[in-house]
């Protein structure tokens, strides 16, 4: 029986549209171009960092981020805040907590993400990031950390994310239940693949996840 839910961050809880739009403005291309190229690399199973290389060959992402930070130390840049939460997240978490689930956030995120997520005062029991753990998805060690912080058996954990490669498959290999949420470029592309059937649940949003788990607990 599922007793704990663990959530990815980007395109599961956080709408990254503003982040990528800011990058488009920074790189001097239209937002349509930036988002289109991002969708292309997602469809080709290439990392999102390849989008920068396609738009600006030889691009040094780390150096550009540092330059941007110096120019605008108080700006959001590649960060997010509560305005970027998908609108169904907060109410969905409340509903899931009311069903009695332990709720944990754990995703691939940079150092500043922990404070940003904490500031949102979400109704969750714990927040963890890959930066804090020193290991990233899909490394099995990341999912071993998920099991450790939950204090539960893998078969009592449901991992929720928007990707087959980073979320569903490695969580499943670790013995967890899995849910693929169909939003964001990867979520829509991966949900359309036959391999989406590897997930225990494929849902469009948090209300659908709540409904699926309400039915499961009732059954």
Describe this entry's structure for a reader.
This protein is of the alpha/beta class. It is 49% helix and 12% strand. The chain is built from 11 helices and 6 strands. The chain has a 6-stranded parallel sheet with strand order 3-2-1-4-5-6, sandwiched between helices. Strand 4, helix 9 and strand 5 form a beta-alpha-beta unit. Helix 2 packs across helix 3. The protein is globular. The model has no long low-confidence stretch (mean pLDDT 95).
How are the elements arranged and paired?
Blueprint: E1 4-7, H1 17-27, H2 31-43, H3 49-55, H4 61-71, H5 89-98, E2 102-107, H6 111-119, E3 126-129, H7 130-133, H8 140-150, E4 157-161, H9 164-173, E5 177-181, H10 184-191, E6 201-203, H11 206-218
Parallel strand pairs: 1-2, 1-4, 2-3, 4-5, 5-6
Helix pairs in contact: 1-2, 2-3, 5-11
Which key phrases capture this entry?
single chain, about 50% helix, about 220 residues, globular, alpha/beta
Rg, rounded, reads 17 Å
Task: Give the DSSP E fraction (strand runs of 2 or more residues).
Answer: 5-15%
Helix count equals 11
- The average pLDDT score comes to 95
In terms of structural class, how would the helical and strand content be classed?
alpha/beta
Our measurement of the CA-to-CA distance between the termini, rounded to an integer number of angstroms, reads 11 Å
Strand adjacency order, main sheet: 3-2-1-4-5-6
How many strand segments? Answer: 6
Instruction: State the helicity in percent bands.
Output: 40-55%
Please tell me what the overall shape is: globular
Characterize the biggest β-sheet. Answer: 6 strands, parallel
What series of H and E elements makes up the topology? EHHHHHEHEHHEHEHEH
């Amino acid at each position: 029986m599922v007793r704990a839910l663990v959530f990815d961050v980007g395109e599961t809880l956080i709408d990254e549209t503003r982040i990528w739009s800011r990058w488009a403005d920074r790189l001097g291309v239209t937002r349509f171009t930036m988002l289109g190229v991002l969708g292309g690399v997602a469809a080709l199973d290439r990392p999102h960092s390849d989008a920068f290389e396609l738009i600006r060959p030889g691009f040094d992402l780390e150096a550009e981020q540092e330059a941007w930070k110096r120019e605008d130390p108080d700006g959001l840049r590649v960060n997010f805040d509560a305005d970027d939460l998908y609108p169904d997240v907060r109410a969905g978490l409340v509903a899931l907590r009311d069903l009695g689930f332990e709720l944990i956030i754990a995703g691939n995120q940079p150092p500043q993400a922990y404070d940003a997520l904490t500031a949102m005062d979400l109704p969750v029991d714990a927040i963890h990031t890959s930066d804090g753990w020193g290991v990233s998805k899909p490394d099995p060690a990341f999912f071993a950390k998920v099991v450790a912080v939950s204090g539960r058996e893998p078969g009592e954990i449901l991992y929720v994310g928007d990707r087959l490669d980073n979320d569903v498959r490695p969580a499943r290999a670790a013995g967890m239940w899995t849910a693929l949420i169909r939003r964001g470029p990867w979520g829509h592309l991966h949900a359309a693949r036959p391999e989406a059937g590897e997930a225990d649940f494929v849902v469009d949003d948090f209300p659908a996840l709540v409904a699926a788990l309400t039915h499961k607990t009732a059954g």
